[in-house]
């Protein structure tokens, strides 16, 4: 990577575009978790509520991490539009299933940027994204474990299932 | 139709660039260049080009922190996109 703009920015411009898309994705995920938290909060599902509020914060932190990374490396971070957030859910189980699907999409998107960074010899972004890959593996595992609880406690009252949801 | 209607980007010094238009030359800093790249990429997406063609067939674009306004028809828009791609992707050794 030795282009004319290399002295201005340390990351590859095409990779920067993908990182900006990732910011939008993380902010959308944050908004989506907030909607899930609200659904749980209205139904007094206290542990799920706490977990989704925390997830909403975490996703925003991820977005901010990428945002600052782009600007710190000479690029231009773009504050995204967040639209079409779903606030309508049918059950707590469907919320957790949606959450897992959302995390898988985020992981896939990070893999895509990682591959693009590697292809463009953008080693700075590649190293930066390693933390996100470990983080995503952890996030997916958390939601899979929760879905296992639903499987194990099938038929039990929702409130009892919620009490088994880990909050830390 | 001549599509090379005088839109050109020059790298002047370490952090100064110039956008040559048929009427004037606009000095750009690197962040302003990044913003121009973002706008041009957005305007040249398939859906955006279709939208332009189906409406006015031209766009007005603010550049250099809204200091200048430029008028671009589709061929000029595409020329400018190529110019920007060239600037951002050409290795130093090949850049003239």
UniProtKB/TrEMBL annotation, chain A:
Gene Ontology biological-process annotations: intracellular iron ion homeostasis; iron ion transport
Domain annotation Ferritin-like diiron: ranges: 9-154
Membrane-spanning segments: none
CC terms in the record's Gene Ontology section: cytoplasm
Keyword line: Cytoplasm, Iron, Iron storage, Metal-binding, Oxidoreductase
Gene3D superfamilies, sorted: 1.20.1260.10
Pfam families: Ferritin
Binding site for Fe cation: 26, 59, 62, 103, 136
SUPFAM superfamilies: Ferritin-like
Enzyme nomenclature, EC number: 1.16.3.2
Subcellular location: Cytoplasm
Primary location group: cytoplasm
Entry similarity comment: Belongs to the ferritin family. Prokaryotic subfamily.
Function in brief: Iron-storage protein.
Annotated PANTHER family: BACTERIAL NON-HEME FERRITIN (PTHR11431:SF127), FERRITIN (PTHR11431)
Protein name as it appears in the record: Ferritin
From TrEMBL, chain B:
Superkingdom assignment: Bacteria
Full protein name: Uncharacterized protein
Lineage: Bacteria, Pseudomonadati, Bacteroidota, Flavobacteriia, Flavobacteriales
């Amino acid at each position: 990577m030795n282009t004319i703009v290399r002295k201005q920015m340390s990351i590859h411009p095409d990779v920067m575009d993908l990182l900006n898309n990732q910011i939008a994705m993380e902010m959308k995920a944050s908004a989506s978790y907030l909607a899930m938290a609200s659904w749980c909060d209205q139904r007094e599902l206290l542990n799920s509520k706490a977990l989704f509020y925390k997830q909403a914060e975490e996703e925003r932190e991820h977005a901010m991490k990428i945002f600052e990374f782009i600007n710190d490396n000479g690029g231009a971070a773009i504050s995204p539009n967040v639209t079409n957030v779903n606030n309508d859910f049918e059950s707590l189980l469907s919320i957790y299933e949606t959450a897992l699907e959302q995390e898988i999409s985020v992981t896939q998107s990070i893999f895509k940027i990682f591959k693009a960074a590697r292809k463009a010899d953008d080693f700075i972004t590649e190293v930066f994204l390693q933390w996100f890959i470990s983080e995503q593996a952890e996030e997916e595992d958390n939601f899979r474990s929760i879905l296992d609880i639903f499987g194990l406690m099938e038929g039990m009252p929702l409130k009892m299932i919620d009490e088994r949801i880990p909050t830390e | 139709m001549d599509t090379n209607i005088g839109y050109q980007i020059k790298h002047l010094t370490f952090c100064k660039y110039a956008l040559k238009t048929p009427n004037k030359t606009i000095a750009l800093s690197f962040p302003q260049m990044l913003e121009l790249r973002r706008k041009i990429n957005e305007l040249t997406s398939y859906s955006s080009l279709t939208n332009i063609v189906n409406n006015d067939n031209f766009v007005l674009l603010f550049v250099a922190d809204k200091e200048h306004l430029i008028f671009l028809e589709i061929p000029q828009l595409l020329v400018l996109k190529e110019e920007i791609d060239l600037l951002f992707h050409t290795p130093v050794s090949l850049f003239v």
